[in-house]
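Hey, can you fold this?
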Amino acid sequence: MAKKLFPTRWKNDKPPSIEKFVETFRDDYACAEYLSKKRWPDGFVCPHCGSRKAWRLEARPWLFECAGKGENPGCRKQTSVIVGTVMQGTHLPLRKWFLAAYLMATHSNSISALQLQPKLGVTYKTAWLVLHKLRRAMVNPDRTQLSGAVDVDESAVPYKRKEDTLKKRGGSSVAHQLWIAAAVETHGKHGVGRIRIARIADRSAASIVPFVVANTVPGTRLRTDALASYSKVPDRPLKMVNIKKTGLPAHIVFKWIHTVFSNLKRWALGTFHGFREKHLDSYLNEFVFRWNRRRNFQGTMDTMLGIGRRIGRVTYRDIVGDTTQWKKEHIEEILDMCHPNKQKIVSDLADLYRVHRLEVLENIVWWVKRLREEHPDLLYGFEWDFNGVRELEEPRYYGRRTKASRPVLVPRRPGEERRTSRRYTNPAALLPRILPRPVQAPALAAE
């Protein structure tokens, strides 16, 4: 049958097999050589003195030491091939970064940190950090806006919180939703182009209009539903479709926009088992990146590694954000997970010393000791459970081995002494006597 009946997503840029990829990038030297060719196609050039001669360090193959030239023969400054990429400042081997980018580029449904952890042989936190750094490189700040005919719509995405697991165990669950908006380029009746997805506060014009303006060029022909917020978008011809009057389902009228939403939600539940509120934007950017480059492997991998772009160093703090500010904004949710006695202590100390509750929560032991030293008369005025306060003040040592309450192994039975042979055989005295012993046949008389 004709090949056109079986289209492939890798029609123009097919990725290599795992065997060929491992053979190509067999060690850090091969990865560093690939990066150096991408960084300096015409040969090494020192960014400090312009020299074209350098030595590669033996211990760290991605570092080059300049040999100097002309008036500055003693330059001797080191230049790295990973500067400006997501690998800048990493402690992982380059080969693991390349393998992570290859797995992420070839997996149609992405890969979670729990799946990547055993494949790279790293901890879960390291795998999680590698994936989020690769997601940071997926967003191009200089990307062009959508144009032509664009469908725009909004939808609600469910997300999970840590405390939801505890509430669900108690017999009740709470559903949380976030609003997102999407824009899809359409070509003719069945064609589809690039997409854009972003989080919005609500369905009001104050949230939807900035999204449309930021992701479409003036003069774009918009097609939306009958929501009144879209009528306030400036400089863009608008066609509003009342779905109820058409008598057709929404996924038929707006085919591609609903395909994007359904694929996004299915992808979230299947790969990540639901989104988290804090890192929702990173996952939305990854989905957009995968959709727009679903038939381009080499460009996808180079973009994720940050080759050819000045991304700069990305640290763990940059990804998780200002944790102090985030905790202050979610202090109510954090305190809901604490013991009621601890909530009472934090609130009383924060009111007494006029500080934020988060500051008391992070070092509650020090604040209780301060209250005991400065205001011993006020200590007994609070309705606290002093047993709980004493437990907070006592130092806790984690990781100390304690004696088990019961033996790990069952005591050996009589006759089950340790055997020196490799194969263990049950003692003859403990074998079940179910079958009668075989009776020896009488010897036949000689003829």
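Oh, and this one too while you're at it.
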Amino acid sequence: MRRALYAMFEIVLLGTSASAPSIHRGLSAQIVMVKDQRFLIDCGEGTQRQILRSRIGFKRLNRVLLTHGHLDHILGLAGLLSTLMRWESLHSLEIWGGTWTLDRVQDLIHTVVLRGATPPMPLHLIDLKPGVLLEDRDYSVSAFPVQHRGRDNFGFAFTEKSRRPFLVEQAEALGVPVGPERARLVRGESIRLDDGRVIAPDDVLGPDVPGAKLVYIGDIGAFDDAVREVVRGAHTLVIEGTYLDVDAEMADAFGHMTVGRAARFAHEMGVGTVILTHVSRRYRERDIIREAEQHHPHAFVARDFDRFLIAKGRLAQKIDSSAHPFEDDDSAHLDDLELTPLEGQ
């Protein structure tokens, strides 16, 4: 079904729990859709089932971007790859991650899943470095380093390229006919009219209008200048909010972020919409929402299967989804069962 609102990016939060799944939340995984491309960011345990429940399916899901190599972000690759090998046809599968992350993925895939067998499609493990990963005419995908436990931790930015709007009234005043001449001007080419006048692109194009920008940050313990530069002015920031501010010392000990810190940071950076994920099971959802909304005027605490459209010139729009398996229920408060992250994850 076509969306009524044009959006450059759409993100589906498949798993929103921290460290271990809860009754209502799966482990970290999300899909970003851009034009006809799909990017799976992280692949926690149970991701393939979440993909099915979201009704997205596996087609064109041939790029996986990993924020880091902790087990709650990569274990789902084994099941996903096993399913893709047996039931789905992909031309290839790319898994992008830092060196330490890919070492763990290599063991998981080749030692556990394949055990010497040849994958049915080309399988590419790509060592992730900061900078632009992919680019086309309309957008780019880039990676940037973040601070978390261990090394090779990354965030990702999806950036729509800026556009110079075509000034129709100006073009008509200059006598530029409708048709290929206008298309050439938009492409940056000068044209010559029948009367001999040369019209340059600057005569009919307005100043650059920045495109939409979606920034995804997984686990992060602190904000440095590099992260600030990427996040500043983003339309939407998706970021972990594992702890509440009252447990800031615990967040620091494990290299994680509190809801309040994340929301304040987003507000300071001029972010239009902040979406909190990777939330701890020790808190009631209403308390997480309350802390987020205290510090940012347009904050969401994501649930599994939440979908958002990101377009320039407007706040992120949450799409109604029938995939939600639950409503908020204080009986789901599992404080006694909270698991703290293990250093070896």
